[in-house]
Predict the structure.
Amino acid sequence: MIPIILSAFSVIILLFSIFLFFRKRKKENISGIKSSLTFICCFLMGIINFLAYWLNFLGIFSWLITTVLLLLAAYFTKYLPPSKKQIN
């Protein structure tokens, strides 16, 4: 029972964070796919690991996909728009 509740909670949090991500991009008037590739990779990591858990697909293949997505997310941070806040 607890894994089902935790999975439902995880899906709700993931969908809510995707909604907030797109709303913030629209509010900041940011367009283009390159600036969102980091977040897409992070969301895909969550989806892949969620599916791997429920489909009993845990193993080297899911770890490999997660590692590749993590490296891609780190690489695509160079396309993120600069922050408007200045740190003094």
The radius of gyration is 16 Å.
